[in-house]
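Notebook entry, structure prediction.
Reason for the run: the old model in the group folder had no record of what sequence produced it. Starting over properly, with the input documented here first.
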Amino acid sequence: MNLFDALKRLNELLPERIWEVRSIGGKVYWQVSAGLDTYSGADDRTAALAMLEYALREEIEARGWGWIVQVSDSQGTYDGFVSIPYAYCFNAYGDSPAHALALALIEALETDHRG
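New structure, fully documented this time:
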């Protein structure tokens, strides 16, 4: 799942955290809530991806879940992990730390919603 599709799914699962996800001219744009602020982002800006990652970490921690992001190989892909204590651990690979964490969070949320 690419970043755009991941953000669209997170918008469905977490509309209070991520919204206004759109793709224009091959670039992905979004709005995200992190801390007490709202941020606009685009996938071609490192600072925007870092703020997206921060918002995802904040969402995970607010649920009492754990997370880890690490470089998975020398080609610059990342591995994101989300763990629900005493239940599951989810991991996913992405092109950025935010992308990997978004994919792992989607799996965790979809599993948690199913009970």
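Summary: The longest helix spans residues 97-114.
The old model has been moved to the deprecated folder.
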